[in-house]
Write a structure and sequence with these properties.
142 residues; mainly alpha; rod-shaped; 63% helix
Length: 142
């Protein structure tokens, strides 16, 4: 007998033991649920002692895949630290942008106020007598 034929015959016998039962279905006598597949809404049943072994093998395979396919804890921590750093940088640039915009607005407001004061004083604000109360026009110079 061929080696592949021997393996395929074992698989056929093993697959013949499997029963898939949906909601409300009748479970054959001597079969117990090995696992449940929610997407298909089916319970997978095998004969009594075999269902424990298959449930354990399925769980081991699942845990092995999770352990090998997911990034390590260190990698996840690095990603978390990079994410937090990018968040702090983003907040800092937003704060700096707002601070500089406010500073420019304040500077231009003050510059406009000083320019208006200089234009409205008609050079009198720069004379000391104009600042004193009761100042009169200066006399003519000789």
């Amino acid at each position: 007998m061929n080696m592949n034929a021997n393996v395929s015959m074992k698989v056929k016998v093993f697959a013949g033991l499997r029963r898939e039962v949906g909601h409300g279905g009748i479970v054959p006598a001597g079969y117990h649920m090995a696992w449940y597949e929610p997407r298909r809404r089916l319970g997978i049943y095998y004969p009594a002692p075999l269902h424990w072994l298959l449930r354990a093998l399925r769980e081991i395979r699942y845990r092995w895949r999770v352990a090998t396919l997911s990034p390590g804890i260190e990698c996840a921590e690095v990603f978390q630290m990079q994410r937090a750093h990018r968040e702090r940088e983003h907040l800092a640039t937003e704060y700096a942008r707002g601070y500089l915009a406010g500073w420019r607005e304040c500077f231009h407001t003050c510059l406009d106020a000083v320019t208006d004061e200089i234009e409205s004083a008609e050079d009198r604000a720069w004379e000391i007598r104009a600042l004193l109360p009761g100042a009169t026009e200066p006399g003519k110079e000789n």
